[in-house]
Design goal:
Layout: H1 9-12, H2 18-50, E1 53-55, E2 61-63, E3 65-88, E4 93-98, E5 105-106, E6 113-116, H3 118-178, H4 184-242, E7 251-256, E8 263-264, E9 269-286, E10 298-303, E11 306-320, E12 323-330, E13 343-360, E14 369-376, E15 379-390, E16 394-399, E17 406-408, E18 420-424
Length: 425
């Protein structure tokens, strides 16, 4: 076993070197000073570090000014021909041949389709045959009535002569009776004969009048039947002429029956001819704007960077799939930039302020008080602003801003809970 050797306490409590103690104290002082300096720096700079900031180069700003502001509804549109002629089939027929295709130009007299018109020709021939028969029937009736009239007129003339003879004999018998040379009975017989001849003459004349009226009525009936048949014949001829499907104006064929051999009914549309010298615009917009659309509102159509003026000429009464359609008549319907089926943007003007505070358009809701940030030196201060009309270029400032103030237009939704934001320039 090892034995424990006693050590002297006085030997371990030997005094440290003076230079060593100075070095230790110096290190402790420097460490404390550094800690104090760090605390001061943190205390001074911490508020700046915690305050949010935005880079000025990433901000889009604008200055409030005065000028005209228009409230508009933005819609999409399509350029369509202002005038389009619809050709419909005048008869039920079969399409024999398609002579023109969509997109081809047509001139007056050009045939578009060839229809099988055999049924129409048969109908026309039938009506013409009936008309010929009725005309022959009228001529036969006319000759028969003229013969009857001539016979009746001859009988009337004979009756006049007979009455004249009986009247002359009665005058002679009256003279003889006055001289006592004729018996009373003979005179009575002469008077009766004369009266009978007069009655027969009047009957013949009355019969002639009735016969004349009867003949006129029969001829009138025949003439009416002839007039009806002539009308049917003219209609059949007109249908046959129309069945040639000829263009009646200069234009472009936009649609035609697609299949040869197809059967078209009377009144079916078989072709459409558009006049491409003049155009309208057909617009469409969400039905949330339906109540604001009205006929007569001014409109602008944006075509290849140019705004063409016009007005709403009509609003379609039905809403389909949440979309309302309307028509725009252009002030320059023959503008050289217009093309059939060209897609365009349409701005319908719903209101106008000739002199208002305004800002370039941004996503500012109308009516409600909206928080925006106003630039004030190196800071942006939040302020409640109410906006009015919203147009394609500008939005109206109703309250909360003054002319000359600079407003941030960029999206600041991440800072809406702050009253102030620092701008780093």
């Amino acid at each position: 076993m090892y034995s424990r050797c006693p050590v002297s306490v006085n030997a371990m409590d030997r005094e440290l070197d003076r230079g060593y103690r100075q070095r230790v104290l110096l290190k402790r002082g420097l460490a404390a000073a550094a800690a104090v300096a760090a605390a001061v720096v943190v205390f001074v700079l911490l508020p700046g570090w915690l305050r949010p900031s935005v880079d000025a180069d990433r901000l889009r700003t604008a200055v409030v000014d005065r000028g005209p502001v228009e409230g508009t509804i933005e819609a999409s549109g399509s350029v369509v021909p202002a005038f389009e002629k619809v050709l419909s089939s005048p008869v039920e027929a079969r399409v024999v041949r398609i002579l023109k295709r969509p997109g081809e130009s047509v001139a007056p007299g050009d045939e578009i389709l060839q229809l099988d018109t055999s049924a129409s020709r048969t109908e026309l021939e039938r009506v013409e045959d009936l008309l010929g028969q009725k005309e022959a029937e009228r001529e036969e009736l006319r000759l028969q009535l003229e013969a009857e009239q001539a016979d009746l007129e001859g009988r009337i003339e004979a009756g006049r002569l007979d009455a004249e003879i009986h009247r002359y004999r009665l005058e002679q018998d009256q003279k003889l009776a006055a001289e006592g040379l004729l018996a009373e009975e003979a005179l009575r017989e002469a008077e009766v004969s004369s009266k009978k001849a007069e009655i027969e003459l009047r009957q013949l004349e009355a019969s002639e009048d009735r016969t004349r009226r009867s003949h006129a009525a029969q001829l009138q009936g025949i003439d009416l039947a002839l007039e009806i048949l002539r009308g049917q014949r003219d209609a059949a001829r007109r249908e046959l002429d129309l069945a040639t499907t000829q263009a009646d104006r200069v234009g472009v064929l936009t649609w035609v029956v697609r299949e040869e051999g197809a059967t078209v009914r009377r009144g079916d549309v078989i072709a459409r001819i558009a006049d491409l010298d003049s155009f309208d615009v057909e617009g469409s917009v969400s039905d949330v704007h339906a109540a604001r659309l009205a006929e007569g509102l001014r409109a602008r159509v944006l075509v290849d960077g140019e705004a063409l003026a016009g007005h709403v000429s009509g609003v379609h009464p039905t809403i389909e799939n949440g979309v309302v359609r309307f028509d725009v008549a252009l002030d320059q319907p023959s503008h050289p930039k217009l093309r059939n089926n060209l897609r365009v943007d349409v701005l319908v003007v719903t209101g106008r302020r000739p002199d208002a505070l305004r800002l370039p358009r941004a996503s500012f809701p109308a009516g409600a008080v909206t928080p925006v940030f106003v630039v004030d030196g190196d800071h942006a201060l939040r302020r409640g602003v109410r906006f009015g009309l919203t147009g394609y270029d500008y939005v109206e400032v109703v309250d909360g801003l003054a002319a000359g103030e600079e407003v941030i237009l960029s999206d600041m939704s991440s800072y809406q809970h702050l009253d102030e934001v620092r701008i780093d320039r």
